[in-house]
Design brief:
Blueprint lengths: L1 H66 L3 H24 L4 H22 L2 H13 L3
Length: 138
Amino acid sequence: MKSFYVVCFLLLALFVKAQERPLLKKSNKTFDLKRDRSLQNQSSNVFSQKEVVKKATKITEQMTEVLSLSEDEKAKVYEIQLNRFQQIASIREEYKNDSQTRKSELKKVYRKLFGKLNKALDKEKMQSWKTFKQSNKN
């Protein structure tokens, strides 16, 4: 009979403890949500960085294929494109609520891109790239 009471007492204690846990979880959830939001911002930055690298790699590979770039030219183009996409991401974040300024800042980046590519590649390759871009604009 004593063992029956002991088992009942342990089960009752277990149920009481189980009822307390959701209350603790609820109170901790607020903290977790705040932490999750900050982690979400960090992960979006990581995601953005991954996207930037992916875009720079994609356009560099495309240019390498179309223009038959050397390894040196390919490395230069990659650095230029990576820098470009990083600047674009930064501008879009900084001026997300000011479309006019965002547009003007993005235009500056595009103009600088052309100049940097002109320095990295010869005129013939730049003309070929321009022709390729115009024919594939659709």
